[in-house]
Structures are given as C-alpha cells and as structure tokens.
Amino acid sequence: MGAFSGFIAGLFGVGGGLIIVPALLYVLAFEVQEVVLMHTAIGTALAVIVFTSISSVWAHHRHGAIHWQYFIKLTPTILLGAFSGAIIAQYLSFDFLRIFFAIFEIMVAMIMWFSISTSGYADNLNRWVWLITGYIIGLVSAIVGIGGGTMTTPFLTYNKVDIKNAIATSAAVGMPIAIVGSVGFIIIGTGIEGTTSGLGFIHIKALLSIVMTSIFFAPLGAKVAHNINGKRLKKGFALFLLLLGVFVLSF
C-alpha cells in the first residue's frame, strides 16, 4: 500500500490518500469500530501525506515544475479550510463520508477526461477566486482525507496550466493540507470511544508501515510523470479517479 500510494502520489500529485483511504477501510475493518472507521482511515491518510508530500515535492521541485506563485495564492485559505474540514468531519456519518468521497471522485474524473477548461488563464484570476478556491480545496480534502490534488490539478488545468506543472504544484499544496488536517483529526479523535491508536483518529501502526515505503516511491512517480506524454497523463489521471470512486461507492 505504501509503495503504490507513494508512486501514485508522485505521478499524479494527489498525496496518496485516494488509495490509502479505501485500502484502510478493508485493512482496519476488523480492528476499528465502524462508527469511527472512516474517520480513522481519513486521519491516518492525512498523516501519511505529510511525509509522502515532502518526498514528492522535492522531486518535482528538482524538475523546476512547481509554480510556487500559485501555491502561495492558495495556501492561506487552504489552511483554514483544512482545519474546518477536520472539525466538520466528526459530525458526519460513515456512509455520508463514503458516498461523498466516491461521488466527488467520479465528478472530477469526468471533468478531467473531457478536458473541460475555461477560456482564461490562471495568472488572470482575481485574488478572491484563489482565496475561495483554496478554502474549498482545504475543506473537502480534510473531510475525505486527500492531499487536494484531485481538486488542485483540475482547477489549474481548467485555467490553462500544463498538466505536469499542475500535478507538481498540487503536490506542494498537499503538504499544508495534510499537516493541518492531521492535527485536526488528532484533536477531534482524542478520547473518542472506538479508536485504538492512542493518537486521535490516526492509526500509528498503519501510519508507520505505509510511510516506510511511500517516501521512497514518491520520487519515482514524479520522475515518470515528467517523462510521459501530457495528454496520456491527463487521461490516466481521470481513469484513476473514476475507478477509485466506483470502488469506494461499492464498499
């Protein structure tokens, strides 16, 4: 799980939560009570992304692919949104989180597959668009346990940013989301009945096991991303999201 999620994180700039959350639903099903199972999977995924994103970001930065100006525009409200999402998640049921996660993935997959985009460019966007978008990305990412790449990448490509640069920038955006989201899930999970990890909604054993390999495979995924055709990469990203959405919906 760690190796595959790390590779996908580097390849698509998604943080790896898209793989980790569905996988942990099965792995932890017999150890964690269902009422907090989705919350534990999401919290643990966010904690993993903290480490995986560092490795992925460094690899993309070495290729000079990250648009740091977009990262700076999105980050302030992403931090607020991520913490808000973690707080809101404690009031949402397992089934709501699962269905929300799945439908969200399928919708984004359709946008990416059909290459829907605006006629404008990211550099021309109003500051308020960046702030509002950042908050939404942070909020939804923390609720479903992802690094934000499934929203940041489509948002940037929708505004005429090259797919490879969008993926690289999304990887960077995932870091603050994961840090703030993880802290939020530790806080809201502390003292909740049904958790077994001792650190809120973060499962320590799963976290350490996944991180041990994910941090080594993220740079490999980033290297592959910069050596394949952009259109194929975009189609592959869309298909990947669609399959994950269907998988979680059928859980």
Automatic annotation (TrEMBL):
Recorded topology in the membrane: Multi-pass membrane protein
Coiled-coil boundaries: none
Ranges annotated as spanning the membrane: 6-28, 35-58, 70-89, 96-116, 128-146, 167-188, 200-221, 233-250
Cellular location(s): Cell membrane; Membrane
Top-level taxon: Bacteria
Keyword Metal-binding: no
InterPro entries cross-referenced by the UniProt entry: TM_pro_TauE-like (IPR002781)
Keyword Membrane assigned: yes
Protein family according to the UniProt entry: Belongs to the 4-toluene sulfonate uptake permease (TSUP) (TC 2.A.102) family.
Protein name from the UniProt record: Probable membrane transporter protein
